[in-house]
Design a protein that fits this description.
heterodimer; A: 4-stranded antiparallel sheet; 20 helices; globular; B: mainly alpha; Serine Threonine Protein Phosphatase 5, Tetratricopeptide repeat
Chain lengths: ~675, ~375
């Protein structure tokens, strides 16, 4: 009965979002408060209904109710409990329900935190959210219903894909969806504003926390996915320019651009039209990503099942929303008032440069992702666009962008003083040069580009610090006065500094790993020693062991430096019994920011194993930088100014839990 | 019934929330631009603070202040204009009525189309606690027991033939081997293991299987099943004379109406001997008595009689489809009669009751594969 209640509440959610798609819109046109008031109440109710539905499905997974086809296909009674929870979204139907849950969650958040918005704007935002909700609820109910039943029920399930039986599945998809779907709010704000025909600096400020929240979660989700692929797939890589990765990377790039252009719009009322367009594009790219991943156009671990009707359904949703939004944009945008003027050398100018480069970079990734697909559809020819293409295009684009990063925050609004900014940055530049070349010489070798890359990374890092240094005016004021000024700086300033510092750290990690990593594939017999990154690995032998739903062969390695044992690790190959599917569990040992990565290959005749050993210098910087960016996002979100509301209602939003509670 | 009450309450609650919200009164929206004004005022304070800290020059601050001031004035002007918005007119009753109708209409019609209100929840634990006659559940229960007590030979002994019958050959082999390990060899276990191995190699008696059968014969010299496979192994390895002698020995030691006689006679013939007349039927078809009766009939009558019996089985299954053994027998009988179309049809009908995904369905498909009929549109 619980399952059927869950199914019914999902159907009811369709009914409520249908009502919300229409009635508050009429209310906003007629300026009727009663009709508009349905929007926030209905948004919260829709969220509760979908939540019940999701809880019912989760319950079915936890108690292994194999009368649900979805549970039978993707679960097993012997699976550890955590994977029964995370297995709910480890399949197509369940992950779409999670997508929907997060979508209505954001609608409900708009209802709760949107008290400071003008009534008609809030109503319209929820209306647009409801359009998306209606489309995706229909998609789930008609093509991907997780509540389809089996009768009689089988006695045992078919198990979850072993690659997905990992903590990563519990973390990566929810974070990624919070990001992906979070941009729907920006989209809805943009479309709502176009419907209203009124977009101003205040609009930009209201949109910013949503952009920031979505961007922060997307950063975390992508970083988590990358780390998961790194340790689970056993290839030792952390980014493959795989279309599925690009699908999440494109909204991130566009979202980063949006974050910056919204800033210009808020401060100067400039770039209005562009910001609205970016908001639409960002969510369109999210939808495109959903289409690419969910339609089965791409085969990967993410494409759980391929079913042409699903692909066509999502394609229709995609065309409807993207096409509709762009049509509305084309019709309404010319009516928007133009904003303030600015000189090329100014904060605005720097942010425009940022937007230009990020947009071109997004387009590059888009072309690299879609071109092979289009070519294959048209001519049947299969080509793969891989790292060389992206390195040459995307990589080169990033150099001027990263070079400009420290200048942005230093320049004044409207007209800046490049010379002044340069003067303030010369210490950072000098430090970056010294640090970049220093690290280069310590590692000794590698192309010249690497040294340049390291300098760029340090440049972003020191530039971020220099910005804080000069704002607090440490150079002129006594330390304790400057310190008080530093503490008194707005939180968003710290957010900016953290984010820019983080991107520098990530660049550093990327350059270090791609330039200085070593890989060796060797046949090792028991007792043999291999060298990597200045460490010696001794292969101690193999043993067999049995997990709850798998059997594994584990190899043991002792790692020593200068004859002293410093660490040991197990690297294993598993066979998941229910599907008879093998996975590798690499042995990873961390030394500072660097890692040794040991992966087992096939056994060789006469005993012993093929072993792949990587030395990954500074690899943790890649994800560490993302974590720093994320922290920057959260610090910025906690900035009081993002929650400025109407004075009369100020008491409420101020007391309400901060946005971070949405985590 | 209880389910419907809950669904009705949910529907009513959703409609009620909408109606109450709507009924709270139709006042014109105060299109307050206060939010925007607050944003601009905040920008002004921020500007003052930045100037206080010396983060921007006094001149820049003046420019910025003027710009924000212009925005403030613009907003105030808009607010005056918006203040003359007309009050909304009625139409709320109609909206409320449409909404009240829409919630149950969409909810119930779509749910009736997609939902399965008749099916209760079936958590695995509860089903295992009360498995009834469901073979798959009994197997699952035994499997759980064995996962905790892997040394319980009796459990393996019980499961092994069930696995074999449902064509889970790898599991069957493991179960037979475990049963032999913990309970010691017996003719049944050894023959079962042998047959499992033979089934896994498409009927070839491998070295492993031969050893199992020979051991079985050693333990129970008269065991015809094991002796048959030993003979079959001889035949397959090209030792026709020894094979024929072995088959003839089985025939000599067996009663003439033993069900395996026909098969043994075939093999005597195929190894160059002279088969004796047999009196039994293909396995699983009409009983051997029926067939004996049919022996004396003219060919046409005999076919009719068998067909009649098969038809009655088909009719019985139509009334009571929940009978796996029946479906298995029906499919096999049609194939014995050479009616592949009917066999495929019976398979399809049987799969409606026992979906291909389930264990019962798998048995049906395994049988279909064995006798070579296509299970179209059925995937495993």
């Amino acid at each position: 009965m619980i399952i059927e209640i869950g199914h019914y509440t999902l159907v009811l959610a369709l009914a409520t979002s249908l009502i919300l798609s229409i009635v508050p819109l009429i209310g906003a046109r007629r300026n009727d408060m009663a009709m508009m008031a349905l929007a926030p109440v209905g948004a919260i109710m829709t969220f509760l209904l979908v939540l019940i539905s999701f809880a019912a499905l989760t319950w079915a997974y936890v108690v292994s109710d194999f009368s649900l086809k979805n549970v039978w296909e993707n679960s097993h009674s012997m699976m550890p409990l955590i994977y029964k929870y995370s297995g709910v979204w480890g399949n197509h139907e369940g992950s779409m329900l999670l997508w929907l849950l997060i979508l209505v969650f954001f609608s409900a958040l708009v209802a709760v935190f949107g008290r400071n918005l003008p009534d008609s704007l809030r109503a319209n935002v929820i209306v647009v959210q409801s359009w998306i909700t209606t489309a995706f609820t229909l998609f789930i109910l008609l093509t991907s219903n997780p509540f389809a039943r089996l009768s009689p029920a089988p006695a045992e399930g078919q198990d979850l894909n072993p690659v997905l039986q990992d903590l990563g599945l519990a973390v990566h998809p929810p974070l990624l969806y919070l990001g992906y779907v979070g941009f729907s709010v920006c989209f809805s704000f943009a479309v709502a504003a176009l419907i209203d025909g009124r977009i101003d600096a205040a609009w930009a400020r209201w949109v910013r926390p949503w952009t920031l929240a979505a961007w922060t979660f997307l950063t975390a989700g992508i970083a988590m996915g990358s780390y998961w692929a790194y340790y689970e797939l056993g290839w030792g890589g952390w980014w493959f320019w795989d279309p599925v990765e690009n699908a999440s990377f494109m909204p991130w790039l566009a979202g980063t651009a949006l974050l910056h252009s919204a800033l210009v719009m808020e401060k100067r009322e400039a770039l209005k039209i562009w910001t609205v367009l970016l908001a639409i594009m960002t969510f369109s790219l999210s939808l495109l990503g959903t289409f690419l991943v969910r339609s089965g156009v791409l085969t990967s671990v993410h494409a759980f099942a391929t079913d042409p009707t699903r692909g066509i359904f999502i394609l229709v949703i995609l065309m409807l929303f993207v096409g509709g939004a762009f049509a509305l944009f084309a019709w309404r945008a010319p009516m928007l008032k133009a904003g303030g003027l600015f000189a090329p050398i100014s904060r605005e100018g720097a942010l425009v440069l940022n937007n230009l480069i990020l947009t071109v970079a997004t387009a590059t990734v888009l072309i690299g992702t879609l071109y092979p697909l289009v070519l294959e559809t048209l001519t049947g020819e299969k080509i793969s666009v891989g790292a060389p293409f992206f390195d040459m295009t995307f990589g080169l684009l990033m150099i001027p962008l990263l070079f400009a990063v420290p200048f942005g925050p230093m320049l004044a609004w409207k007209r800046g003083d490049l010379l002044g900014a340069m003067q303030r940055l010369y210490v950072a530049a000098g430090l970056a040069l010294v640090a970049g070349f220093g690290l280069y010489y310590i590692q000794n070798g590698g192309p010249v580009m690497a040294a340049f890359g390291l300098i760029i990374g340090f440049w972003a890092m020191f530039g971020a610090l220099a910005d804080l240094w000069h704002r607090a005016n440490f150079s002129k004021l006594p330390f304790n006065v400057a310190w008080r000024r530093l503490v008194g700086l707005p939180r968003s300033t710290f957010g900016t500094a953290f984010a820019h510092f983080g991107i520098g750290v990530t660049v550093l990690g990327v350059v270090m790993v791609t330039t200085f990593e070593t890989e060796s594939v060797i046949e090792m017999k028991q007792g043999m020693t291999a060298e990597a990154g200045g460490y010696s690995l001794v292969f101690d032998g193999m043993r067999e062991s049995i997990g709850p739903n798998f059997t594994e062969e584990q190899g043991h390695f002792t790692i020593s430096k200068g004859g002293v044992a410093v660490a040991d690790t197990w690297s294993s190959k598993r066979i998941y019994t229910a599907r008879g599917m093998p996975t590798t569990e690499a042995g990873i040992v961390t030394f500072g920011f660097s890692q040794l990565y040991v992966s087992l290959g096939d056994p060789i005749a006469g005993g012993g194993m093929v072993v792949r050993i990587w030395w990954k210098p500074f690899i943790l910087c890649i994800w560490g930088g993302c974590v720093i960016m994320m922290i920057g996002g959260f610090i910025s979100l906690s900035d009081r100014r993002l929650r400025v509301g109407a004075p009369t209602r100020k008491a409420k939003p101020a007391k309400a839990p901060k946005l971070e509670a949405a985590e | 019934m209880f389910l419907w009450i809950i669904l009705a309450i949910l529907t009513a609650a959703v409609a009620a929330v909408f109606l109450v919200t709507l009924a709270r009164g139709s006042r014109p929206a105060v299109d307050d631009r206060a939010g925007e004004i607050a944003v601009y005022r905040d920008q002004l304070t921020e500007l003052e603070r930045d100037r206080g800290l010396g983060l921007i020059s006094a001149q820049d601050a003046e420019y910025a202040k003027a710009e924000i001031g212009r925005r403030l004035i613009a907003v105030a002007g808009d607010a005056d204009k918006d203040a003359d918005c007309p009050a909304p007119r009625g139409g709320l009753t109609a909206t409320g009525a449409v909404m009240t109708a829409l919630v149950p209409a969409v909810g119930l019609s779509l749910y009736l189309l997609l939902g399965s209100p008749q099916l209760p929840d079936q958590p695995l634990e509860a089903r295992l606690a009360n498995p009834g006659n469901n073979m798959a559940l009994l197997v699952a229960k035994a499997e759980r027991h064995l996962a905790e007590n892997p040394k319980d030979g009796a459990g393996w002994d019980l499961l092994a033939p069930i696995y074999f019958r449902s064509m889970r050959l790898a599991d069957a082999e493991l179960a037979y081997r475990n049963a032999i390990r913990f309970l010691g060899p017996s003719p049944e276990r050894l023959s079962g293991l042998g047959e499992t191995l033979v089934a896994g190699t498409d009927g070839i008696v491998t070295e492993d299987a031969r050893l199992a059968f020979e051991e079985s014969v050693r333990l129970e010299p008269g065991n015809p099943r094991a002796r048959f496979y030993v003979a079959l192994g001889l035949e397959q390895s090209g030792r026709r004379d020894e094979a024929r002698a072995a088959f003839e020995a089985i025939a000599k030691d067996s009663p003439s109406d033993a069900p395996w006689m026909e098969l043994v006679q075939q093999h005597i013939a195929s190894t160059g001997g002279t088969p004796q007349a047999t009196t039994n039927a293909a396995p699983g078809g009409p009983t051997s008595d029926d067939m004996a009766a049919a022996e004396d009939m003219p060919e046409g009558d005999r076919q009719d009689m068998i067909r009649g019996m098969v038809e009655s089985l088909a009719a019985r299954l139509e009334g009571d489809p929940n009978n796996l053994e029946g479906w298995l027998r029906l499919v096999r009988s049609y194939s014995v009669l050479g009616d592949k179309e009917k066999a495929a049809e019976a398979l399809k009908t049987g799969l409606k009751t026992f979906p291909a995904e389930g264990d019962e369905g798998r048995q049906l498909i395994a049988l279909a594969r064995e006798i070579g009929i296509a299970a179209e549109g059925v995937t495993q």
